[in-house]
Amino acid sequence: MAFSLKNFIHSLGPKSLPRILQIQSGFYDEGSMYEKLGHECCLSTGDVIKVAALEIKKILASNLGGEDASIQSTTVALPLNFPGLCRVMADKTPYINVEEIVNKVWIGPTQQEQPCFCCSKDIQVENLTIKQGEKIVFMSVEDHNETLTVNCEIKRDGQVHAFLLPRSQEGDFYECQDDRIYTLEEIAQWKIPKSRTREVLFLNTGDAGQSPELLPKSFGSCVILEAIYEVHAVMKFQKEIVHFHSDLDVEVEDVTDHYNIHTFLQPLSVKDVLEKAGTGSPFVVATDSGFDHTLVSLDF
């Protein structure tokens, strides 16, 4: 099944990489985008690429027009270092189970990176009943007795109760309102779920007045944010890793299950290998006699 590149990339979590994609409708650019990124690339129908890494490069901000017909829907690109501060608005669309939360929402070690949800029904865990609407803090994900679970806690009557939720736990989980203040870069890193957008309230865009074209005054303070990723990919037997943005008008199909992930080898000279060895990062090499000169292939 073919998907738009944007929808597919935005559905991937960091643990799902690498993935192998086949281009279903090609895109060719003589270099205007790739020259800016330091690489040239041609994505043609039928090409197979390995997506090795994703990196958020910019944020699209939309005002969506609203009910006021005189305000046109507008979308602008904001850099990650945009100086405005903002507050996250709770997502009104529920998650149908804990597994969906784990797959789409960032859960990190610090308090700012630990999302909070409430369930639309009571949940019985161990000797504790989590009441409908009670605030649940998702602390971390771990392998508990060979089963992936989420470490959670609730605060009740001044006491903290810790418990585990299995990924299979069903129920409509609604995001709780978060009153913390974030920079745009923090929102991009932690607060935009996979396959979703994020509504935020800008609290202070005074410093942004130095670049008024970035966030037009017609936007108001409440905007919808969407992440645009830079895709780091490998094409067969090409030396350089290619970079392109996830919003290219390209359709792709996930063919990971039909390809050997190790067939995507990066040909390097001995000099290239020695340079990479100096970075301290481990990698695997193999000699390749299929070229006019002795090369090694890098597998990562």
UniProtKB/TrEMBL annotation:
Every CABIT domain range: 17-263
GO cellular component, one term: cytoplasm
GO biological process: T cell receptor signaling pathway
Entries under InterPro entries matching the protein: CABIT_dom, THEMIS
Similarity-based family: Belongs to the themis family.
Protein's recorded name: Protein THEMIS
Source species of the chain: Crotalus adamanteus
Lineage of the species this protein comes from: Eukaryota, Metazoa, Chordata, Craniata, Vertebrata
